[in-house]
Each structure stands twice: as C-alpha cells, then as structure tokens.
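tool_call: predict_structure(chain=1)
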Amino acid sequence: MIGGILQIVLKSSPFQRKYMNIKKTLLSYSVFFLTLVITFGAGFWAHSQLYPTSAHFPVLSEAYQLILDHGYKDPPPVPQMEYGAIQGMVQAYGEPHTYFIEPAQAELRNDTLEGSYGGIGAQMSRDAEGYIVLHPFADSPASQAGLLDGDRLLKVDDLKITPETSTEETIAAVRGPEGKTVTLLIARPPDYTEMEFKVKRANIPLPSVTWNLDTLDNQIGIVHVNVIAASTPAEIQGAVSDLQERGALNFILDLRGNGGGLLVEGVDIARLFLSDGLVIQQQYKGEDVKTYEVEKPGPLNQIPLVILVDGNTASAAEIIAGSLQMQQRAPLIGTSTYGKDSVQLVFELQDKSSLNVTSAKWWVPGLEPPVGEGGLQPNITVSTENASEDDPFMDAARLYFTEK
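tool_result:
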C-alpha cells in the first residue's frame, strides 16, 4: 500500500498503556515504540462491559449464528470469519489509510520497520512445482547449520509447508526470537532426500539504505532510501560518510518509490540535513498542535544535495522532501509525489494481527499547496514520456550539479 506505513506503533494491556524502550543494535541506533494491544474476545474490544458485541452489532451476531445453524457448507475457522468482519468494518469506515493486516504480513511489516529480524539468514523462492526452496546467505545461521542452496522446505517446527502455504506464512514461521532454535525439515535435490536441521536464529539486518558512486560522475554519491525504518537515519549517515571517503562531493538522496515508514525517523532524517527551523507540525483530533523543530545543526547540513521524487514517494518520505524543499535546502527533481499527510496508529491485536487507524494529520509549515492537496511539486520536473533507457531523473540531477 503506497503511503500506508507512516505510523506510531503502540502496545499495552487492554486496561493499561505503557512505554517500552526497544534497543536497536544496528549501527548503535535506538528507537522508541509505543504499542497498544487491543484484545478481541467475545466482541471487538476485550472490555466487553464497554463494547459488548451483542449490544452494538446485533445484526452481525444474528447473521453469524444463522450461518452456523443453517449453512450447508462448514464455516471457515473462526479467525477467518473475524478477519472478514474486520475487513468489512474497515471498508465501511471509509478512510483510505485505515486498514487491517493479518498476523504473518504484520510481522514482516514490523521487521522491515525495525530494520532487522530474528531468523536464519536465507532467501526463499518457489521451484517449478511450487515448493518453497531456500537460498542461505554466506556465513548465516542457515549455511553454518548445513543447509544448501536449493533445499526444498517441507516443515518448520510443527507447520507443514506445501505449495499451497503462503510465502508470508512460511517466512513468519521461520523467523522468531533471536537465540531460539527452529527445526526445519527439507528435501535435498537431486533425489530429494529428507533431512532435518536445527538452526539457532540470529539477528539478521534488513538494510533500508543502499548507496553507490555515480557511474558517470564519481564525484556524485547516490543514497537510495527504500523505507523509513528505525535504523534509517544512522544508515544514511554511514552511507554519506563512506561515499565521502571514496571521493563524493555532491549527493543525491533518492526517495523514488519510498512509500514512507516511521514518522519520528522521517523527522530525524530531515534534521540530519538542516541547520535550524521547523520540520513539520502534527495534530491529533482534539489535541494541541505538536511542532517538530531542528534542535541543533545536523551533521549533513552543509553537503550539496538534491532529492529525487516520484508519484510513489509518500508519507514519511514526503516529510523529508517537503521540509528540505521548504527551507530551500535541496531542490526536488522528478514528478509530483503521492500526497499522504496522515498518521496511522498501529494497534497490535491479541493474535499479532494489526489494525492501522488514521489518527492525526501533519503538514510542513508555510508549504503551499499542502502535501495532502496533490503532493509535493518538484523544483525541476522530469518528463518520463519517450524516455530512453537512461534514467532521466539522474540526468537532471547531474545537469543541476554541472550548472550550479
């Protein structure tokens, strides 16, 4: 979902909220997540005295009971019925960035935003018969345990893996707490002999940033940011430092295709490149406006910079691009951005699924038109019509530095 992951993560018991400090090891970066667990029991909220299903959703309860009593076909498992009801409720609510995610997908999304996961260090693909096969990384727990490229995965602990098992469910089963052991049953080609391996999970980084020197001008460093995760500000600093050591003088921050991520980290990335001023303002319903300012000059506030954007640049990525454009810190090169100015609170439900609820709006002070009204408008527009095999966005960025 484009622009669907600018969010604050919440977690607590149904009757108590608390803050949790989650230490991140990747590049010594730390992030605070505030999480709230909503428990679904007999109703849509665990506190049934406040929100009893029978009182507030009598027709839903009646319809469900009629299916149980009179349906010729056996009903699906209760979780599937619940998920369908939640999806219908979200659709009826009618807010485009409020959505529900089932447990396996929610776990993968959370791993991406945290910047690492507990796992075995192996990619997965499907063979010609639809089975999931493993491709262990070098020096990973998977390769160290003896797993080989092309091993067909048949079972993860007690979960049988068939061609019908979704990739998301399989990945979620293989991942888990760092230091815990997972048992894998595989079939090894060419004769597909079955073998069992016990693999101790380790912390596997999920980098959100890649970087390289421009192949046509080695004084230009290109930093590609794929998602705004907990580790992204530190990753960007590391990327710029490495590129400077390799001779880069000018820099391109490539936010094309970046659908967003975590709000605070988006603000922190903008602060890296600014010396002072405001980044954004934000407001929850019925609450005072909160202002995010630059507290001290950022370590990257002097480097020559341009930002590449397109129609898939959204949410937290637009915070970065919009605030730097407003302060005339860096021109935007490309096309209009997506235009998502809302904040989602992520509520983790008792089965690890999540409900993402639009709860606030943000804006760049003084920026006209606002982000939510058609997206950010580039300073230098790039036409993608009749484009050659070369990258017209990069061509425009090179020309900007040449003429500057």
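agent: The first helix runs from residue 53 to 56. Proceeding to next step.
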